[in-house]
Amino acid sequence: MRHHELIKFAMVGGTTFVFDLAIFYSLSLTILETKPVIAKVIAGVLATILSYILNREWAFKNRGGRERHHEALLFFIISGIGVILQAAPLFIGNNVFDMRSNLSVSEVVVVDFVLGYIIGNLMQMAFRFWALRKFAFPEELLRGGDAGSTDLHPTLAELNDEELGHA
Predict the structure, then answer these.
(1) Could you tell me the pTM of the whole model?
(2) How far is the C-alpha of 72 from the C-alpha of 18, rounded, in Å?
């Protein structure tokens, strides 16, 4: 069960990563060229909304059990901290070390990617996986078969159908 959740969480993360990346570069290479941290925060917030929907309805669908508004509030607080963690290396690189001033556009793209999407993503991903499982979608509030439904022991075919989104 834990590996299934991790794999689903990683797939949601991959999807929102591409979504975040497209929005960030669309903004930071055009209207927010001089404000990459703002572009990163906007992209992060939009990716967080998509992430909530995908995590709630797929990755952690058998967890939680809280009222939706309480669960959503916890998710967005945790994800807000994640957005800050992800933007922190970009903020430090641009505002403390003033890295953008002496770089070409192609160098800026690479530096922004390393700071915001490699270093920042690793920090926020580790924090969010731990915090979402612990607070927003806790194990003690399981749903579905794990919470006492009539399908306590699904077959391998049923599990595969669920993985493919058929259940």
Answers:
(1) 0.68
(2) 23
